[in-house]
Amino acid sequence: MGLSITPVEAPSSGTILFYVSPRKAPPLPRINSNTEADDARMPNTITTNPLIPEQSARNTGILSTSGALLSNFGALFGLAKDVSEAFDNVPYIKAIAGTVQLLLEIAESVQNNEKRAKELIDKVQIYARDIFEALLMIKGDREEVLAKLKQDLLDVTEVLENIYDTIKQLFALTFFTRILQRAEILARIEEQDRRLDTSITSFQVRSLSVIRANQVNPMNRNEPALDNNLTLRNNLPRFKNKLRSKPQIMFGRDKEIEEIVCLILDNKSASITILGSGGIGKTSLALSVAHDHRISTKYTDNRIFLSCEAITSTEHLITDLAFALDIPTDSTDTNLVTAILQKLTETPTLIVFDNFETPWDRTDIRLGVESLLQDISSVGTCTIIVTLRGSQRPSGIEWTGRLPPLAPVNLKSAMATFQTISNKMDEFAVKLIKAVDCIPLAVTLLANLAAVDGETTKVLWERWSKENTSMVENGRDRLTSLEASVELSLFSPRMKRDPGALSFLSILALLPDGMSPETSQACDVQLTTAFNVKRAISTLRQNALIYDDSNGFIRILSPIRLFVTAHHPPDWSSRLFIQNYFIDLATQGENHIDPETRKRLRAESGNTEAILVDCLLSQKSAVDDIISAALHFCQFMYCSGISSTQIIELLDRRLQTKKVFTEDQTTNKSSKRSKMFRFNFFQWRKNSSSLEKIHEFAQQNVNFPLKLRGDCFGVWGQILSRQHKFSMAQDKFESAIIYHKQAGDLDGEAYDLHNLAYLLLRDSSTFDEADSQFQQAYNIHKREGNIIGQAHDLMGRGHISLQRAMLQDAHKHFEEALGIFIELSDEYGQAAALNNLASTLISCSKFSDAAVFYQRSLALNLQTGDAWGISQSYAGLGNSFLLRSQLADARKYIQAAIDVHSPLVDGYHLHILGRVAFAEAQLIEAEEKLKQAQNLHQEINDIPGLADGSHFLALVHLYQGKTKFALEEAITAKRLYQKLGNKLGEADATAVQGMATARLKMKPVYGINLLEKALKIHQEVACVLGQAFVTHHMGNLYLRKDPPDIQTAMELFKKAFHMHKSIGNAQGEADYHNRIAECLMRYQLFPDAPLHIDQALDLHTRIGDIGSQADDIYIKGSVLLNQGRTDEAETAIKLAMEMHKQVGMRFAEACDLATLSSVLYEKHPDTYHYQYLREIYGYEDEDEDEDEDEDKDKNEEICESDDELDMESPKSVLAEAEKIFKTQVFAPLEVSQCERLFSLWIEEW
Is the pTM higher than 0.85? Predict the structure, then answer.
């Protein structure tokens, strides 16, 4: 692995999705220690902006700007001209058009090293076109419309003018000034960027209603706008409402609100429970706190309300929380908690967990639920409020304040509530309130009944007395009293007049996520003979028994839903209807690639799972009716990231205890074949009939109950693999093989062998076993006529060859599989095969060719909606750009992969992002991302990932000057690669080991010997990138010989240069020029050196590599010093030092300081000789007159500074360099050079 090979890549949504993502070939890093000549970072290239028209044409999916990009500047110029002419008498609109034209003109001059300014201008183009198009849409009375938009347009004008002034001032600065003021300039641009977003958002919000109203035909206000596509494009993120509205009626909780608000304000983070019985007002209290103006000021929009009443598993709790946090939830939950915790650390957040008793009361998931809550409560920026029924708190958390359980409100407050709702208050009302013990929900329900026209409190009290006197007199608890109030609501006169209302409520109570409009419509159609659904809904609304949520779902308050479920279940025909409805919906999981189907299943996932669980627990439901639905829904959950095993566990339990089919256990009837279901890691086909033509699914003499047990274990293993629970997954797959063998299901056995083989690829010691299992699976698939299965087995064997660096064999297997997929029009298989071929080309250093294959794979994945495949294609493209030194594109695509894969955090994606930062010389970010990736790899024991991480951490440490740590990481990486049987990875780690060893032992020969071993391996497998990397660093070590072998070094640099050029590695080309310039300096050929250093600086600037730019400026300063141009040399060396310091290159900074000391000494040698003579020899010149004594005293003050660094004193600067060499780099050679330089100064005087 490492620098030049890509380990096994999981077939993108192909054979097995759980396998950790492909290891793309890392870039060849380069370490430039200036005088020492140690490179260890690689690629970079010209920045590519996604908003540039000709480049954006190839961008699709989430990177698409949905038509907002301009095809060219001329189009926008023309649009600006049209607007200017159309609004000739409106000065502020003409000002916008004129400023946009000026920005377009100046955009031509923006260079690559002003990337952020170019991005801002590109954004202005998009927004400007939106504004211009919107203005040209105005019909009729323009003055009326413009009057409403004037202030927003004036704000936009001001922002655009400020942007123009900022960018214009940028061009007035010199190159060195722009570098020195980089942070300040970037801050100014970012400020204008934010102001632009704010002003455009304001304009968009106002103009949407103003312009749309202007477009309505005044003769017919019901007529739609002339063009529904005229809605302004909003390029800013849209956020859903995260918090329910504040309770409008709230009495008797002022004390509790104040106490909780104070607890939150007095603590950076707080964990608060609101306990009490059902209907006591916990939710209302929590919402009132969340809406308190002091809380809203502290947390602004970061206040989240999460209803837990539909949550019955830890996985669902995690997924719903991620969704509430705006974290995409179409991935697995394995690392979802990490994503959630990371999001919570970014800004202070308040989370309300409402009805938390639903997941917490379940003993089988309590530990997991408590563990999650503990993790969230430990985040220092997050405050949680947990409402749950009862008086017991979840354990393991340090609760803030430990508030006692809520008591009912006092009578006065309950009366105020009743009167506000019903507008009635008398003695009977008071009796009703007291009868329900002032429980807020019960009071509210009774008040709603009393509010009905014609209903009196006296009649209500008579009914209550008749139905519930004994219960009240027996002193039963408040929960029972609450149930009585619910019962009273359910049997009110209005409910009795519409018996269908309770029937519909009983159906609704089965759905924890509420009833969608689609389900409501289906009920209206299918249950017409039973009752009138529309009337029932109306009746329930009037009795405040249901409400509509923000998504249009009909919901019941949780206590009412639980009560109805327990005491008023639906009749069997209605229950059977809702079961069949959701069974049909679950079966659509087979077609989850369809966007609308995915959207519907996601919205109904809680309901679907609840109904399937209800079916599996019900003794009346026939298990064979829900097998296909359950397995297809598991497929959807697997692909969408829910990954719950509850359904498959229950299904397997039913299969153990029930006969699935009433007829013979074995059959070969075609009618049964049509119902056969095969769950496997091979992608579902859109057209099952076409698949059947390729492979007859049903087999002769198959024992169906045993086959289904095997399928269940296979599904179970799939989900566990997606959760990275590999040991448990292996157990399930092995069980699946046993059942499939006993059932005579050869095809199922082949799938199990294939999936097990992928698990075995995680360790090189089991490669042979994995290869054998892939071959067995292939033979069975061939015998059974399953051509697609054969193709996937071929890809499995290709992965083994790729791991073993047998690149020709890998390419052959992948190419053969691709041919099969193309012949069968299998888009999923094609995408997976293309990704694998691209990975092989990466290992062969054919980066441009690999990018083409990744683009083809991306197009197919976008077409099929395969999120996993999309993320892998984006990651592969990012890696290909990285290896060609196109760092801007590399960062863009790897970030796209991370976004698509979110909320699951893929260690490989973070690893690539760390490499991009490393290539940019952003060492702090690089180390951070690489360590994060290492932690993720460690969690799942991902050996290839750990090897890659150690390898690149070694390079980062080497570049930081932490040579001992670099050597340790390199040796660790080498051992891991050897364990994996990864020859190229071993070669790359050996090369880094050689570089670190040479530096520590001060004997380049040790390093050269190790590098020669690495070079031999790279030559054996024809890895051009690896050969170039090693050859270049061998040249560095020849320069470090004593005496330096400059001629050999130059020959090696030249060889490496040609190899880098052949594969399009701009970083390698730039480093060549840097090294040649140093060699020329050593030959005293100073006039020739600037040409090469200018070429190196130009390339490194275009790439965006700050560290290498600093190296080049350092060399330039050294040339200037040798030419006697000390003032220019001082400026250059100081600039190089600031840039090295900015990116954390301590060793290079020490070299800068050492050279700067020579510059300062050369500038003013006479200024310092008195101090040196006095310190070393005790020399005093007694003949010096008084004026000279004063000058000496002044000079002494300049030179004396033991505690602070005096940047004008050569002694102080040199001492600082020596200090860094001693404490940071473990480089005795450099320390001795500092001591020698100081001795030379003394000797000179």
Answer: no
